[in-house]
Amino acid sequence: MTHSKIILTIAAVLTLTACADKNPAVASLTIKVTPPADYSASETIHLVGSFNDWALEGDQAYPLSTDKGELSTTIPVTEKNVFFTLVKNKNWQLMPANEMAKSQCIYLHQATGDDAEMAVHIPLWTGDKPLKTAEPSLSGNIVQHKDFTLPQFARSSDIDVYLPKSYQHNPDKTYPVLYMLDGQNIFNAQSAHSDEWRIDELLEQLTAAGTLDEMIVVAVPNSVHRWVEYNPWDFKDRDGKAAQGQGELTIRSIKDTLKPFIDSSYRTKPQSANTGLAGSSLGGLMAIYAALAHSDTFGFTAAFSPALAVENMHGKNVLFEAIKQQQTIGNSKIYFDMGQMEYGNYEQIEQLNSLLLKQGFQAENLKLVKDDLGRHCEVDWSRRFPGALKWLQAGI
């Protein structure tokens, strides 16, 4: 080998070494899983998450393997926050549930840059028979109105009303009212689909500490037709078929029937500036719709992780199209948020914010929160609730 070639070879080695120093070995996360007691070796369990684009098939799939009776798998950690869950038999309907057979939130691992282990216990899969019954978890003064008639849907619904601590002791005081959709998840672990929001506990603590002002909260549960009743516009359903949204009827059931009852039964501040609507996911879509179409009733709204993937039969985003066509802009305050993992980035929620501003909403009436740790579940919506309500209460 000539002298020049030796020099070039040494230079190449030094370059590779320098590159290696700049790109250290990727850290790993080993996830060890304790499956339900009736687990069978014939079942498959796959780990899916942000690290593999939630893939169940192909080269990106991560099936759990058994080693000395322990189920585990190891994944590379290339991002600060790793979101993941587990799927049984490649069926998205079979995911981790707690002992009450209620679905659990997506798991979160916050990386430190070092190799790590994480233990996950799965009591049940969604759809399994519960191991125990969920206990009631109501706190404070909650009045339950059983079988409240909603003529808009020709059915009845159980309505729960949270009254502030001072309500019984201060008969001259009146209160703002917040209506919350998916009401079965708001106060009570027993009725919640998965986790509850714990709004009663939060308000008891935060109003006692003076962090939040007192208000009445009315929990309005959904029906088995939630997908239709929480869509304000006609849309393309999960099977690609045209579906007629009944979201307007849902708002009318609150505006024309429930709100007059609440205002006549309790000491409320009935004006629109003191009346709010909040919801998550499709309920968040409804909250934004209320601000667009019913600002005369709802002066403030909160949309937690609003559903931003609903399309019409032309493949257009139903919410974005509605905003573009909005003729009049009310004075409603809108809080809306999103977790980064929910859509993989913040592009859609930023587009929503831009469209609202372009259409005439005042910047001071909009509050966008981006949550890098946010997941699509009640646990994180509850965590963001105090901040949302504190901003909305300003000026009430």
TrEMBL record:
Task: Please name the source species.
Answer: Rheinheimera maricola
Q: Which residues cross the membrane?
A: none
Q: Please tell me whether the keyword Isomerase is annotated for this protein.
A: no
What's the protein here called? Esterase family protein
The protein's UniProt keywords, in alphabetical order, are: Signal
Q: Which Pfam families match?
A: Esterase
Please give the PROSITE patterns that the UniProt record associates with this protein.
PROKAR_LIPOPROTEIN
Q: Which InterPro entries match?
A: AB_hydrolase_fold, Esterase-like, Ig-like_fold, Mycobacterial_A85_antigen
